[in-house]
Specification:
about 190 residues, alpha+beta, Hemagglutinin Ectodomain, Chain B, Nucleotide Exchange Factor Grpe, Chain A, domain 2, 2 domains, three-stranded mixed β-sheet, 6 strands, about 60% helix, about 15% strand
Length: about 190
């Protein structure tokens, strides 16, 4: 054999040896494969645990925000109710003024002005969710919405019926901010 042919065979043998080593290095053995699969499963479990934890924290934060929003609405409604309570005596005074209006024809402009002021005030209160409690004589007494000023004998009304509304009650949305003061039959 010539030297050049010998070198070709040696080079080919060297390539096969290095290729064989490279092939054995890239293909993992069974124990390595099992270790990688085990590590993969472990990482998947850890990932699922992190995802579950994240979802729980998001839900917890969403619940926290809802509670804070509810608390803020409650604080707002309480502050609004307190503010409105300060204006209710003014409404009572204006209503009394209109009930006891003078009979003088010259006072008609004054009376219409008072009625207009009362109407504007009631529209403003209505825009904030305030409404008068609808209590009429003859209605059954309801302690959730009414406060009894007196209990009287009255032949026209049966036991526990409202005889007269002494002072109008008001509610803010669904909450009573001032019960109606009533006279009740016994």
């Amino acid at each position: 054999m010539t030297d050049s042919k010998k070198k070709n065979y040696e080079n080919r043998d060297n390539l096969e040896d290095s290729g064989g080593q490279a092939a054995s290095q890239t293909v993992p053995g069974e124990s390595e494969l099992e270790a990688l699969q085990s590590e993969c499963e472990s990482l998947k479990a850890q990932s699922a645990e992190y995802l579950d934890s994240l979802q729980r924290e998001r839900a917890s934060f969403a619940n926290y925000r809802k509670r804070v929003d509810q608390d803020n609405h409650l604080v707002y409604d309480n502050a609004l109710a307190d503010l409105i309570k300060t204006f209710l005596p003014v409404v009572d005074d204006l209503e009394r003024a209109l009930k006891n209006k003078p009979s003088d024809p010259e006072a008609e402009l004054w009376i219409s002005g008072i009625a207009l002021i009362l109407q504007k005030l009631m529209k403003t209160l209505d825009a904030k969710g305030v409404s008068a409690l609808d209590v009429q004589p003859g209605d059954d007494f309801d302690p959730a919405f009414q406060e009894a000023v007196t209990h009287e004998e009255d032949p026209e009304y049966s036991d526990s019926q409202v005889i007269e509304v002494v002072q109008t009650g008001y509610k803010l949305k669904d909450r009573v901010i001032r019960p109606a003061l009533v006279r009740v039959a016994k």
